[in-house]
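User: Here's a protein and a ligand (adenosine-5'-triphosphate). What would the complex look like?
Assistant: Let me lay out the input and then the predicted complex.
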Amino acid sequence: MAITVSVGSGKGGTGKSMVLANLAALLARQGRKVCIVDLDIGGANAHIFFGLFEPQRTLTHFLTRETENLAEVAHTLDSFHGLQIIPGTGNTLQTANMSYQEKKRLLRALEGIDAEIILMDVGAGTSYHSLDFFMAADLQICVTMPEPTSILDFYHFLQLATIRKALSCFLSQSEVSKTLKQQHFQTITEVFEAAEKIEEGAQRIIQKQLQSFHPLLVINRVTAGSKLNTLKLKNIASKYLGIYLPDLGEIPIDEAVAKSLQAYMPVCEYAPGADASLALQAIAEKLTKVVDLFLSKR
Ligand SMILES: Nc1ncnc2c1ncn2[C@@H]1O[C@H](COP(=O)(O)OP(=O)(O)OP(=O)(O)O)[C@@H](O)[C@H]1O
Ligand SMILES: [Mg+2]
C-alpha cells in the first residue's frame, strides 16, 4: 500500500500545486513510483504543470461512478519519469457535495493505486473537504508564505485541522462529538477539557490521535526582506495546539517558476539549476528521508 502525503495551506495561492508538482517529479526522477491525486475540488490544475490539457479521464469519472476503478483515470507521464496523475475535476454537483461515504470510497480506492507514494493536492482553505483529505493522509505538508497574513491563515488552518482530527476520534453521533462541533475552541487544552467533561478518558484518546500529526513546514516565496519568525510560529503551534512542526525547507521567490509554468513543466525539470529548483531538490531529499522512516516503521 502506498504512503499518502497531502499538501495543504490556509490561504490560496501559496504555491501548493507548484510544490506538489515539483516534489512528485523529483521523487519520480529518483526512481520512486509516484502518483498525484488532485483533490482540489473546484480549483484542480495540477495536470497543467505537466502540459496535460483537457484530460479525457478525470476524477469525475470515478466520482460519478462511470468507473469503479480509480486506476483507470490515472495518466502515466512518460516524459516525467513515469509519474502518474489523476487529474482533478470541475466543480460538479457530485464533487462539491461529496458525502462522508463518497470520501471514504475515494480514500479506499487510493489503496488500489499502483504507486509507492501518493501526493494529494487538497486545495486551499478550511472546508471540510480540504481538512478531511488533508488529515486522511499518512503525512502532511503545509505550504505557507512568510507574510504575517499568510501565517495567520495558516495557523487558523492548523487549528481547525487539529480540532477536526480530535473530533475524528469519536462517533459523529456521540455526545463528545455533538458538543465539540457546537463550540468554538482557541486551544487544544479547551478541547481536552470540554471532551473530558463529557467522557472520562477522552483527553487521552485525542492526545494519542494527535501524536502522529506533525505537519511538515514549507515556506514559499521567501525574499531577502521577509523576516518570518518560524520559531515563534512553532512555539505557538506547540503551546496552543500541542503540535510540533518540523521544517521541510524554504523556497525563494524565483521568476523561473512563472517561466516554467508557461512552458507547462515543473521548474525542477525546466530549469534544474534555478534557485527555486535547488531548494525544491533539498526539500525532496528531506521528504524522501521522512517517507522512508515512515515506511520502515509501518
Ligand atoms: N517560489 C515561487 N517564486 C515565484 N512564483 C511562485 C513561487 N511559488 C509559486 N509561484 C507562483 O504563484 C502562483 C500560485 O502558485 P500555485 O498555483 O502553486 O499556488 P496554490 O497554493 O496551489 O494555489 P491555489 O490555492 O489557488 O490552488 C503561480 O502563478 C506560481 O507560478
Ligand atoms: Mg493549487
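Summary: Residues 9, 12-18, 40, 43, 123-124, 220-221, 251, 253-254, 257-258, 261, 276 surround adenosine-5'-triphosphate (ligand 1) (CB under 6 Å).
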